[in-house]
Sequence to fold (205 residues):
Amino acid sequence: MPATTATTVNDRTLYRPPLVPVLIDVPELEFAMVDGEGAPEGASYQLAISALYSMSYPVVMALRRQGRSDLHVRPLEGLWWTPDADGFDPDVEARDRWRWTMMIRQPDDVPAEVHDDARVRAAAKLGAEVAGLVRIERFAEGRCAQLLHVGPYSAEGADIRRLHEFVEASGLRRRGRHHEIYLSDPRRCAPERIRTVLRQPVDDA
Fold:
């Protein structure tokens, strides 16, 4: 299968891939991040998500008040892996072995004092220990293969394997963590309509 690379990297390129695999070049971006382990229904995962949103919403609101009215909170994203495994297998039965870094992309050029104030607000809401889980970090993924998965999270396995096959057929190799971007709110969306970006960093073979 020939490799197709998206040449213009914008929000549509990053967050609206086709249903078939493509190659893109992801620029360095800034994220709020929390590390953890265990299944998504676990308490530590739910706490991590609360911490990320409690940091990200005040940042966007503060910048809107400064005139950046076009800003909005970005979708939740996650890096996933399983210890001693070749990549991430969502079909693994021992979900407590899953490792993850959950993250939300931050706006460009956020002043340090805006993030500091957001952390204070998060600490007031969730406690200083929970707010302290969040770090702000630049993340450079570089060249990646990605596609759009439509359907329940439990059915991702086939599309992940299809993405891996595309990487190999393109003469590339996988590197880094399996990356997911959650475009739909599962609380408000039927499982068969959930949209998730599946992304895999790649390198020359």
User: Anything to note?
Assistant: The first strand starts at residue 5 and ends at 6. Confidence is low (pLDDT under 50) at residues 1-8.
